[in-house]
């Protein structure tokens, strides 16, 4: 019985989905646009005119889809004026609509993100956010978080905010933008359980540095910010000699009750080190640790074990350590 190759392949069944437009097709569309062939619209940005195909822009961009399919949009209208995006950026975005490729760099990323937000091109906006996420550092994290807040880029904001929390000591000492934070942002940072600091002294000193940048307008926030410092975790000497007597604290009447509460807890702990402080008292509650807890040995039934396990408080999970030699028999 004879059979053809086509019949044999047909017997395989199923379907093949090509997720991306073939490169040859994209290149051909670009060539047509550059040559002005089959174009049925012009995007005008200032003095620059960019010939385009409506169907391509409508398929790639919600803004143009809404514009071109609106019943009020004249079918014979040829030119669309864009006033809020520069010509170079608009040209680059139109290239992206045709090729699904965009050269994003430090110089153009913010302009492309703003333009993609204006055009409701979430995929391009996400690419810009991914690029900015890769650029988060001690020196850029606060500026990037503020930018992300402004344009509602939540994933980018979370990435930048987490970086600030995890590297707070380096950020407050090395990032010039730290002193430009508003009181609400600093309050949020200091109030986080994930704030990574070796001691609460760092939190207090960060507050003082921030207020020192503009004392007349900022010292009024000392009480609100101080409530986010785990004062009862400071040493008694540090609290008495540095916090209690500091002019910003001493001169603010709203700090009085907080100082009294902290002193009471600290003195109780000094008298009896075994005293337990309720974890619902915010100034005494430890922050989430960054270290990993190691547990050795234990019992299984009637027999001792030589297991070693670790607990990661951030991942909230236990893990067995494999390949660890033990002297336990």
UniProtKB/TrEMBL annotation:
Domain of life: Eukaryota
Secretion signal span: none
Keywords: Kelch repeat, Repeat
Residue ranges annotated for the BTB domain, each copy included: 39-106
SUPFAM superfamilies: POZ domain
Keyword NAD: no
PANTHER family, sorted: KELCH-LIKE PROTEIN 32, LD33804P
Name listed for the protein in its UniProt record: 10
């Amino acid at each position: 019985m004879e059979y053809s190759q086509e019949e044999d392949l047909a017997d395989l069944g199923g379907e093949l989905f090509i997720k991306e437009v073939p490169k040859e097709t994209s290149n051909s569309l670009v060539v047509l646009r550059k040559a002005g062939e089959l174009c049925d619209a012009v995007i005008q940005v200032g003095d620059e005119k960019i010939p385009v195909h409506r169907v391509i822009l409508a398929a790639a961009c919600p803004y143009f889809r809404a514009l071109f399919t609106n019943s009020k949009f004249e079918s014979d209208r040829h030119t669309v004026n864009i006033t809020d995006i520069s010509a170079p950026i608009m040209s680059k975005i139109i290239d992206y609509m045709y090729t699904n490729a965009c050269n994003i760099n430090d110089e153009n990323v913010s302009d492309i993100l703003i333009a993609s937000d204006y055009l409701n091109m979430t995929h391009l906006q996400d690419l810009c956010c991914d690029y900015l996420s890769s650029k988060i550092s001690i020196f850029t994290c606060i500026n990037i978080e503020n930018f992300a807040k402004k344009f509602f880029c939540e994933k980018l904001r979370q990435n930048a905010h987490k970086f600030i929390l995890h590297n707070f000591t380096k950020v407050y000492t090395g990032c010039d933008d730290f002193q430009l934070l508003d009181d609400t942002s600093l309050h949020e940072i200091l109030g986080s359980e994930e704030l990574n600091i070796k001691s609460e002294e760092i939190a207090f000193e960060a507050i003082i540095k921030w207020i020192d940048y503009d004392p007349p307008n900022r010292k009024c926030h000392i009480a609100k910010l101080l409530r986010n410092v785990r004062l009862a975790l400071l040493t008694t000497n540090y609290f008495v000699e540095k916090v209690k007597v500091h002019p910003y604290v001493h001169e603010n009447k709203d700090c009085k009750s907080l100082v009294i509460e902290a002193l009471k807890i600290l003195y109780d702990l000094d008298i009896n080190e075994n005293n337990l402080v309720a974890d619902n008292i915010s100034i005494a509650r430890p922050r989430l640790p960054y270290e990993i807890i190691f547990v050795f040995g234990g019992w299984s039934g009637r027999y001792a074990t030589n297991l070693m396990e670790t607990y990661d408080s951030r991942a909230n999970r236990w893990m067995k350590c494999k390949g660890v030699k033990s002297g336990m028999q």
